[in-house]
Write a structure and sequence with these properties.
CATH superfamily: Phosphoenolpyruvate-binding domains
CATH architecture: Alpha-Beta Barrel
Number of domains: 1
Radius of gyration: 19 Å
Distance between the termini: 66 Å
Largest sheet: 8 strands, parallel, barrel
Strand order of the largest sheet: 1-2-3-4-5-6-7-8
């Protein structure tokens, strides 16, 4: 489609590429999105589960994302129609569903992402969200149904056990492992290199391969992201804005203080 803004992350995944994103959880600054885009990230993971952003702030982040060519993907706090629909109406190009365990609940949630006959989404697109292009309702519906990225998080042992049922549902594009909660569920909190953790995540990657769903993970940093990308993850989240800021500040100060001892 050459009209309306495409979902570049979805296009890259369709080509078999690996995409990288960064979380936005703490700082209420849409300008950070422009920094992520300039750095070369494919998508921004705007967090409304653990982040403190309201809808107006997320709207500004989504708008900034689309104007600078990075894909805005938002994690909702829970599986609720109005949370997903309002974000999609604000221009989000993907939704992340957290703590999914039940196939029936996921099936219902996925129906909210697309308009009839493919789903149950209500039509509420306003001209600002398609950048004032003069498009018909059928054109907008076709575009939105094609471009919206549906991401489901697997974060518990129960979800891993139900993986084949979850991944067989139509309309699901990406599975994203939540390693922190999964490690807690496995009884090894924070032990991301534990054999049980690695075996469990690789089990999910295998299920993704069987069902044609993109495997993904939100990681705690660069080393962890690289390790899982090497193991086959293709939708890879790399830490968050506050993590990179603190790490770079510490690195800079350590370098400066090592180069020139403090004067008495």
């Amino acid at each position: 489609m050459e009209w309306m803004r495409p979902n570049l992350t979805r296009e890259r995944l369709a080509k078999g590429e690996t995409v990288y994103g960064c979380g936005l959880q703490v700082y209420r600054a849409p300008e950070i999105v422009r920094c992520f885009a300039a750095a070369g990230f494919d998508y921004v993971f705007i967090d409304q589960e653990h982040g403190s952003f309201n809808l107006e702030t997320v709207h500004d982040m989504i708008t900034a994302s689309k104007t600078c060519g990075i894909t805005p993907i938002v994690r909702v706090g829970e599986l609720q129609y109005t949370l997903c629909a309002r974000l999609l109406d604000q221009g989000a190009q993907g939704i992340i569903l957290p703590r999914v365990e039940e196939p029936k609940a996921l099936e219902e949630a996925l129906s909210w992402f697309r308009f009839p006959p493919r789903g149950k989404r209500g039509f509420g697109i306003n001209p600002t969200m398609i950048e004032y292009e003069a498009r018909t309702m059928p054109e907008i519906i076709a575009h939105q149904n094609h471009e919206t990225l549906a991401v489901c998080q697997i974060e518990t042992v129960r979800a891993v056990e139900a993986a084949d049922e979850l991944l067989s549902l139509p309309g699901l594009d990406v599975i994203m492992i939540g390693p922190a909660d999964l490690s807690v569920s496995l009884g090894i909190p924070g032990q991301f290199d534990h054999p049980k953790m690695i075996e469990t995540v690789e089990r999910v990657i295998g299920a993704c391969s069987r069902h044609g769903v993109v495997p993904g993970i939100q990681t705690r940093g660069i080393a962890m992201a690289k390790a899982w990308a090497d193991r086959g993850m293709r939708f890879v989240g790399v830490a968050a804005e506050h993590v990179f800021l603190l790490e770079k500040c510490r690195e800079a100060l350590a370098t400066l203080r090592a180069a020139k001892p403090a004067t008495v």
